[in-house]
């Protein structure tokens, strides 16, 4: 009985999206994989921790090919259907090291890509199943308390949620869209520069201004556009970044205006000593809790048109900090991303002035529609008395 080779060969590295950085002999494994042919060189696959820095954030390994099965949906998206096997699925694995998993949540065993690349989940599924290259995501605010979220592949909807009265609501009807923008320069996206001379695989949108309680944050507008030669500038969406990062001058103007607006009625908030990584914190008892989180100034991200606005309410702008050491705070969940890094090996926290992070994505339905080059967002589902845990498929 002969086994199919589970490794993409060196000649096919570009085809499977590995970039052809280098190749190795699969016999490096000890004990060697039974499907390894020591006479054939295969693609290196080096998993990276997006929250890490330097060589310690890179794992050594080889690209592998296997079959992955995902549940389908039936009844117009209302029910889970049978598993659909996807053959020739490309992935990579590496041995565990504490440094490689540094800064990742506990019990994480792997990473999945939703980027603009051949290896992303949605691209591989789209290719294998002949479906549109689309992924829609809904992240719960507290997976431990509220359960998991959902990812939908290859579909524009419907995405049903159940209201408090158990009626079905199609969340796709609430999506607003803005164009996805391609950054022409990939350099600096990852520790290993796989893709010399190719566009970035990150997702960018055209943010034109930030408003707090309807007042514009003063921003150097050149930071909001992508330089076509250096790739510097613009606004990125990153599910791997915990909190939205703002370039230092933007961060200073943003926090100053937020603090000023929060000091006025009806909020009447006074800042207190912050806790890292945050710079603006308030005593928790001073804040009023509403159905959309703590009552604080509204943050609006104005996109390609004045009427296309991504609204960030208190549940997404504020982070609760409480521990046994008498820390009882609500902190503004935006962090200082530093200034432009002129070094050749600058990573994207210096390359991209604004990176919208995971906290700001919670209980929002978001959609990366790469097939149509657009990004969809609902703003907080809490404003509609819903959340990601209301998705109908999670109730089955």
From TrEMBL:
<comment type="similarity">
    <text>Belongs to the peptidase A1 family.</text>
</comment>
<feature type="domain" description="Xylanase inhibitor N-terminal">
    <location>
        <begin position="12"/>
        <end position="155"/>
    </location>
</feature>
<dbReference type="InterPro" id="IPR001461">
    <property type="entry name" value="Aspartic_peptidase_A1"/>
</dbReference>
<protein>
    <recommendedName>
        <fullName>Peptidase A1 domain-containing protein</fullName>
    </recommendedName>
</protein>
<feature type="domain" description="Xylanase inhibitor C-terminal">
    <location>
        <begin position="204"/>
        <end position="378"/>
    </location>
</feature>
<dbReference type="InterPro" id="IPR032861">
    <property type="entry name" value="TAXi_N"/>
</dbReference>
<dbReference type="Pfam" id="PF14543">
    <property type="entry name" value="TAXi_N"/>
</dbReference>
<dbReference type="GO" id="GO:0006508">
    <property type="term" value="P:proteolysis"/>
</dbReference>
<dbReference type="GO" id="GO:0005576">
    <property type="term" value="C:extracellular region"/>
</dbReference>
<dbReference type="GO" id="GO:0004190">
    <property type="term" value="F:aspartic-type endopeptidase activity"/>
</dbReference>
<keyword id="KW-0964">Secreted</keyword>
<dbReference type="InterPro" id="IPR021109">
    <property type="entry name" value="Peptidase_aspartic_dom_sf"/>
</dbReference>
<dbReference type="InterPro" id="IPR032799">
    <property type="entry name" value="TAXi_C"/>
</dbReference>
<keyword id="KW-0732">Signal</keyword>
<dbReference type="Pfam" id="PF14541">
    <property type="entry name" value="TAXi_C"/>
</dbReference>
């Amino acid at each position: 009985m002969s086994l199919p080779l589970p490794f993409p060969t060196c000649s096919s590295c570009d085809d499977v999206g590995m970039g052809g950085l280098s190749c190795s002999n699969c016999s490096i494994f000890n004990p060697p994989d039974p499907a390894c042919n020591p006479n054939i060189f295969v693609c290196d696959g080096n998993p990276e921790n997006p929250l890490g820095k330097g060589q310690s954030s890179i794992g050594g390994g080889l690209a592998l090919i296997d079959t992955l099965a995902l549940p389908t949906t039936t009844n117009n998206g209302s029910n889970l259907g049978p598993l659909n096997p996807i053959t020739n699925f490309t992935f990579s694995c590496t041995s565990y090291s504490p440094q490689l998993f540094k800064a990742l949540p506990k019990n994480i065993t792997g990473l999945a890509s939703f980027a603009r690349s051949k290896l992303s989940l949605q691209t591989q599924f789209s290719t294998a199943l002949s479906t549109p290259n689309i992924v829609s995501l809904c992240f719960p605010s507290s997976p431990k308390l509220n359960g998991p979220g959902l990812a939908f592949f290859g579909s524009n909807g419907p995405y049903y949620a159940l209201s408090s009265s158990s009626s079905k609501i199609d969340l796709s009807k609430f999506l607003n869209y803005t164009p996805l923008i391609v950054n022409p320069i990939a350099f600096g996206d990852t520790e290993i520069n796989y893709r010399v001379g190719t566009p970035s695989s990150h997702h960018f949108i055209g943010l034109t201004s930030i408003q707090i309680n309807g007042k514009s944050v003063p921003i150097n507008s050149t930071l909001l556009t992508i330089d076509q030669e250096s790739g510097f500038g613009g606004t990125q969406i990153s599910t791997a970044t915990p909190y939205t990062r703002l370039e230092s001058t933007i961060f200073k103007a943003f926090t100053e205006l937020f603090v000023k607006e929060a000091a006025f009625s009806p909020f009447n908030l006074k800042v207190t000593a912050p806790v890292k990584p945050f710079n603006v914190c308030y005593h928790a008892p001073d804040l009023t809790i509403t159905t959309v989180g703590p009552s604080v100034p509204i943050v609006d991200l104005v996109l390609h048109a004045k009427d296309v606005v991504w609204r960030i309410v208190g549940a997404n702008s504020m982070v609760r900090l409480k521990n046994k050491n008498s820390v009882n705070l609500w902190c503004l969940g935006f962090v200082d991303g530093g200034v432009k890094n002129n070094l050749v090996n600058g990573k994207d926290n210096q390359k991209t002035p604004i990176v919208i992070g995971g906290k700001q994505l919670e209980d929002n339905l978001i959609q990366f529609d790469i097939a149509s080059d657009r990004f969809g967002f609902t703003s907080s589902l809490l404003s509609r008395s819903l959340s990601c845990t209301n998705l109908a498929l999670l109730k089955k």
